[in-house]
Amino acid sequence: MDERPEFLVRGERASPVYPGASGSQSTRRRFRETKSGLLLPEGLEDQQTSADSLGGKGGGRSQAGRWSGYALNLFSVLIQLVTVLVLWWTFQRTVIPIQQKELLAEQAARLERENKRAAVSVAKAQATLSAVNEDLDAQRRELAHLKRERLRLEQESRESQNAAVLARRAEERANAMERAARAAADRANVSLESAQWNIFASTAMWVIYEFDSRMARINIENAGADANLSYEDRVRESLKKASESWLDYEVVVNETASEIRQLRSPYFTPMMAAEFASVFESEGRSFRCQRPDFAAMEARYLADLASARATSHEKALAEMREVTAKYASEGRRAVFESGWEKRTAEIYFISDAAVISLGLGEELRNITKECEDRFVEIGSAFLRSKTETGGE
Q1: d(Cα 380, Cα 179) in Å, to the nearest integer?
Q2: Which terminus of the chain faces fewer neighbouring Cβ atoms within 10 Å, N or C?
Q3: What is the pTM of this model?
């Protein structure tokens, strides 16, 4: 009957004891610890070398043990690799708020470029209006001349009926020329007003974006979590900051309208600012952004973390059972280092907790984004009507 050592583990290194041994020096053997955490009898490599030279079956068993140790080491490496990938994914997800801030800066630059283009359009429209006014003055001088001609013809009409007909025709021609001049001036005014509304719309939308981006900036400021806190405390801290910084959009609407009303520029009139501010206030009265139930969110995410922590221990135990069963199928007994289960469970928990924390951040961003998307639409239909029709 083969004598195999039993391992007694009491929180430290295992001490091997052969069955039936009375504790004498002849029946006790020393063991050494491998890189994978297993204990192997000293001199086993010498026995392996001897067995290999003899071509016996014992060499095959030793070879199988080494492959098993390699497999266990590979499994530990894979666990560490998964942890690194999860941390990398976490890093990628936290960069999103910063990218949103950069997008706002790009939008600001785009609005500034549009303002410059619109300013050029106003200058061109003013030049066109000046040319039209000069043409109108010339036509008015022509009209005055025609009226003098009409008086002369009326004087001659007393002597001839044909002279009266000529006078009426001259008057009709003068009236037609005056109507054409007025139509040209009206068209120039429409073009100028359209350019002014375009500049004002860009300026007003920048004010709206400034107020609307408050919540996004708050989310960016709250994104950094204290690494010294537990995942449960990080959830509590994030939701506390979000609750304290939640915007009162009724106040935001009034402040935005007041800021728009104070806009001044040589490229648009104060009446435009006052008119749009009134429209913004009117439409903003019906704007609502539901405040989330932060207490319920906290309870839900803390429950998820508790479940992840319990599941992590179950996963660690399952892994231990799997390794033990594998060694048992090979006629050997698996021995684990002290604290191996706790460390493995912690790795599983960190992986699951990171995913849960990302889900919380994503949910908060989606809630605020929905409100922000609706806020920037206040008064947008009015501005489109003005910029497309020239304020008619």
Answers
A1: 36
A2: N
A3: 0.43
252-305: pLDDT as tens digits = 889 999 999 999 999 999 999 999 999 999 998 888 888 889 899 999 999 999
User: First vs last Cα of the chain: how many Å apart?
Assistant: 106
The closest alpha carbon to 206, from 114, 269, 96, 97, belongs to 114
- DSSP H stretches of helix in the chain: 44-54, 58-94, 96-157, 161-212, 214-223, 231-244, 249-261, 270-284, 294-329, 340-375, 380-389
Would you tell me how many other CB atoms lie within 10 Å of the CB of residue 19? Answer: 10
37: left (phi over 0), alpha (psi -120 to 50) or beta: left
Tell me the pairing of strands 39-41 and 31-33. antiparallel
C-beta atoms surrounding 50 within 10 Å: 13
In whole angstroms, give the CA distance from residue 242 to residue 234.
12
Place of tokens 């080491």: 73
- Backbone φ/ψ region at 30: left (φ over 0), alpha (ψ -120 to 50), beta: beta
Q: 């206040």: which residue's tokens?
A: 378
DSSP sequence for 268-282:
B-HHHHHHHHHHHHH
Is the separation of the CB atoms in 6 and 17 below 8 Å?
yes
Cβ atoms of residues 193 and 385 within 8 Å: no
Please give the distance of CA 306 from its chain centroid, rounded to a whole number. Answer: 28
Closest CA to 212 of 369, 11, 53: 369
pLDDT digits (tens, 9 = 90+) for 307-346: 999 999 899 889 889 988 998 898 888 888 888 888 998 9
